[in-house]
Amino acid sequence: MSVSCGVECVVILGCLRWGWKRCTYIGSDDSATWPIATAEEFEPIPRVCRIILAVYEPDLRCPKFAPAGGYRLNPDWVIKRVTYEQTEGHAPPYIIYLDHDNREIVLAIRGLNLVKESDYKLLLDNRLGMQMFDGGYVHHGLLKSAIWVLNTESETLKRLWEENGREYKMVFAGHSLGSGVASLLSVIVANHGNKLGGIPRSLVRCYAVAPARCMSLNLAVKYADIIHSVVLQDDFLPRTPTPLEDIFKSIFCLPCLLFLVCLRDTFIPEGRKLRDPRRLYTPGRVYHIVERKFCRCGRFPPEVRTAIPVDGRFEHIVLSCNATSDHAIIWIEREAEKALESLKEHSTSTVTTPPKVQKLDRKLTLEKEHKDALERAVSLKIPHAVASSEEEASSSTEEGSSVPKSVDVDDTEPSSEKEKSFCKTARTNWNDIVEKLFKRDESGQLLLNRDISVTEK
């Protein structure tokens, strides 16, 4: 009797301890060790949020949902506006905006529309491990939508880029569902720059606001130099490891679903999560806007933390009443603008001269952070992870290759043959190594080059 009572007490204490840890876990804990972002690198994000908000406006000259301070956009620079009727369910609505002030060509995609059946079909077009692309797994429906957008707008984007001296940046931006399409669109363009007139990877940028988990961890780290994800404090979507279709099947009981997901993932070892190549993650470098503290009421001046996390990349659901409100694009734009003003005040108060040297050092630090993240992914034995040296060698090989690459919707069909071919090409070409190290004699036997030189002497 005493033994059973002791076991019950241990179980109860364990459950209470787990419940206390889960209830006291707040969104700022995910980025507690990250460094603070600089004003220079965070400056485009509020502006991009306003461009995404402009997708919802039928006429920017007479806006109905303008944020505080207005959109600050030139309506004459809106090149194209695409609605649901024009996309025919292949993609969410989007606009193409030519920003001459910042020398950018922006394609902005809106988020999920809860009353549109086509958005749900796009989101539900996926199964765990259904689609491989570029050595990793991605969301099948979002990839298919990204390819449709590229095939539809490639000529327009190519023309705009060439007409403006082939110097403007190509920026893809999206919120929620649109963030997944924009992220995969940037990955395609980075690998198939010939579709847009040969644009280099260095001029491709993506801003995923309230991002959906759309690619495996090796891809999320690999493209951290061009994809920037923005998360507001407790946003549920970047932290939800369950397939997206499960979320929206249970949209009317989202708190219950989030609690069950939280309970399940608590007991899954970290190593098992990292070894699963099919598990999807938030893409690229992450900017986490933090504005609330534990057991403190109200919002505080927001601060922006940034990193390229490998392990612990928003793996824990936050049980918060703000988990859904922090997903709204209008709140993200508002807090991002406040955070940028705070970063500018901080930079002006500490720097008295033009920060030319400091800015260069920060750029080198960003590059080093990306290399360190790639090495970290390799050390954790993440499936299909590639070291920074191998990534640089492969990118230089692709740039020097004269064979054009094409993108077609048929290429998105999942197949085991593609996975096998990837595994073959990912390994070292042993035939080339043999030819370099060995020579065949007259009898056909392999001899080391060193042995051949000795026999000749």
Automatic annotation (TrEMBL):
Domain Fungal lipase-type: 106-242
Hydrolase listed as a keyword: yes
Keyword Translocase listed: no
Domain Mono-/di-acylglycerol lipase N-terminal: 7-71
Molecular functions (GO terms): hydrolase activity
Leader sequence segment: none
Pfam families: Lipase3_N, Lipase_3
Start and end residues of each stretch annotated as Disordered: 385-424
Superkingdom of origin organism: Eukaryota
UniProt KW keywords: Hydrolase
InterPro entries: AB_hydrolase_fold, Fungal_lipase-type, Mono/diacylglycerol_lipase_N
GO biological process: lipid catabolic process
Name of the featured protein: Calmodulin-binding heat-shock protein
